[in-house]
């Protein structure tokens, strides 16, 4: 059953957070609020799949909170439940770095086959160079059977 999302923006969730230099605590609180909002719309019991979300910001990209909100919107419309503990983020970390705290945690979740789907705002949030991106996709999607969805294509 498809659930179509109609924005019901909560003022507490849409606080003005700057794209650059977001404080970790503010971002985490905003993500908590966004996750709770979308879990009300699509509870786990009504979801068809379990997913994970990865977001990374950089100086000239969309903020993490905007990425997370957009990914949750698409996830709800596709019947994908993303538990809060499967929201992985890296703040102001370049996509050229192969070892990033959020990406490393995501890798563990994918290796444990805890999710069916990985959602990202765009593939460039995972890696900036094509070779690393293709290796990641090959390891997790082709070999691991995890579907990867980039919402900003």
Structure description:
- By secondary structure, this protein is α/β, with parallel strands linked by helices.
- Helices cover 37% and strands 14% of the residues.
- The protein has 4 helices and 5 strands, in the order αβαββαβαβ.
- Helix 2 links the parallel strand 1 and strand 2.
- The protein starts with 23 loop residues before the first helix and ends with a strand.
Based on CA atoms alone, the radius of gyration comes out at 15 Å
Number of strands: 5
Low-confidence stretches: 11-22
Shape: globular
N- and C-termini, Cα separation = 24 Å
pLDDT averaged over residues: 80
Helix content bin:
25-40%
Q: H/E order of the elements?
A: HEHEEHEHE
Continuous helix count? 4
- Please give the largest β-sheet: 5 strands, parallel
Determine the structural class based on helices, strands and strand pairing: alpha/beta
Strand percentage, roughly? 5-15%
Highlighted features:
single chain; 153 residues; alpha/beta; 4 helices; 37% helix
Walk me through the topology.
Layout: H1 24-41, E1 49-56, H2 64-77, E2 80-81, E3 87-90, H3 101-111, E4 117-120, H4 130-142, E5 147-150
What's this model, at a glance?
By secondary structure, the chain is an alpha/beta fold.
């Amino acid at each position: 059953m498809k659930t179509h999302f109609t924005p019901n923006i909560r003022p507490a969730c849409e606080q003005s957070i700057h794209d650059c230099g977001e404080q970790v605590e503010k971002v985490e609180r905003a993500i908590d609020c966004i996750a709770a909002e979308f879990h009300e719309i699509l509870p786990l019991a009504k979801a068809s799949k379990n997913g994970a979300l990865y977001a990374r910001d950089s100086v000239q990209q969309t903020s993490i909170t905007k990425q997370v909100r957009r990914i949750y919107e698409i996830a709800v419309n596709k019947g994908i439940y993303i538990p809060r503990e499967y929201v992985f983020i890296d703040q102001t970390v370049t996509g050229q770095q192969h070892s990033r705290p959020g990406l490393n945690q995501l890798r563990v979740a994918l290796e444990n086959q805890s999710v069916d789907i990985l959602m990202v705002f765009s593939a460039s949030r995972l890696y900036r160079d094509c070779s690393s991106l293709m290796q990641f996709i090959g390891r997790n999607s082709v070999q691991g059977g995890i579907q990867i969805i980039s919402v900003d294509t």
